[in-house]
Amino acid sequence: MQYGICNLSMVSLRSEPTNDSPLISQVLYGEYFKVLEQRKFWSKIRLAFDGNEGWIDNKQYLNITEENYKFINNKNATFSQDLVEFVQDPNEQLYAIPLGSTLNGLEVLNHRFDGTSFFGVSTKCNLVKTAFIYLNTPYLSGGKTPFGIDSSGFTQMVYKLNGYKLLRTASQQATQGEALSFIEESEPGDLAFFDDDEGVINHVGIIMKDNYIIHAYGKVRIDRLDHSGIFNVDEEKHTHKLRVIKKVI
Length: 249
Hints:
This protein is mostly beta strands. 13% of the residues lie in helices and 41% in strands. The longest helix is centred in the middle third of the chain and has 10 residues, at 151-160.
């Protein structure tokens, strides 16, 4: 088994080993992974954080030893806390890193970080506060940063920055936690999931107080939530059909 770590700000994780295949997620700085298959130009990887699998360009990651992989994995998870931070290599070159980058592997990468970091678990009430950091971030399918994010990437990163693990896609996240029967049973920070006409869960948002929801749709925005789904305050219509509410924390 081979192992790797992302040594750039963010790297595209694709469904197939080609540059024109769909972007299924992003690998942020410091994320580490197992290399499942290595070809001439591409590698198939499995991320340690959420088990997500996909293909990345061989030029966009650094191979590490199994010993280093275990060293990083055994450390308390630490993440960058500002929208953009910088790390510095031994040649004093700067690398910009986005919010939520993993800092466990700084020693392995031989990088220095002087910014703001977080490790540990926050209280549930901090989830909505964190979500506001991403407000007005443009929607990007597969995105995980304040410069482009999708609905499940948004919820995953908000929970990650507070010390909790969510899986990558909305349908995967819907398998986590405890289902609630009514919106009235929910608390700020709980997750609401929505499905399409075929019953496939394809959207998720974070519940706020007073029947509001923050979610990524066109951009990270705040809309109304009722028993039918999301009522878009700009379009003045329902845009998403409610499937289930889950309490993960």
